[in-house]
Amino acid sequence: xxxIRVLLVDDDRGAREGLGRYLRLAAGFAVEECPNGQTxxxxxxxxxxxxxxxxxxxxxxxxxxxDVLLSELRRQYPRIPxxxxxxxxxxxxxxxxxxxxxxxxxxxxxxxRMVAIIRNIAEQNKTYRQMAQDMHLTVVSLIISVxxxxxxxxxxxxxxx
Length: 161
Hints:
Layout: E1 5-9, H1 13-25, E2 30-34, H2 37-47, E3 53-57, H3 66-76, E4 82-86, H4 94-98, E5 103-106, H5 111-160
Parallel strand pairs: 1-2, 1-3, 3-4, 4-5
């Protein structure tokens, strides 16, 4: 089974390290931690193909505010689900979903639920990859079939002449 990899973006060092440690030790995930949006965007350039999800605190330091980072992540990396978490959410996270987040969670974070959501994403990714592989094999089979049919027609036409 592929190891689940997440990018964790939180400017609160204690919160970031605590959640990162939990995800590594309790869930067995590979976790890349970033203290701010700029670092996250830089790290993403090299690890984007291996990521299952991005976890980010919505309230980040001013280098790249959370709403800007979320928009940028959705623009540059639309296939990587972003899970936003925040303690400042009187509306239940609808705003984050409207801006493209996969999920929005309130602090304090229900870590068990977060792990379940990430595992679900990984399972969906696995299913999508298998479907894509199956579709590729079907297309290749159709191409081979068409080529054989055309070759048979050409051969038959030459025999008639």
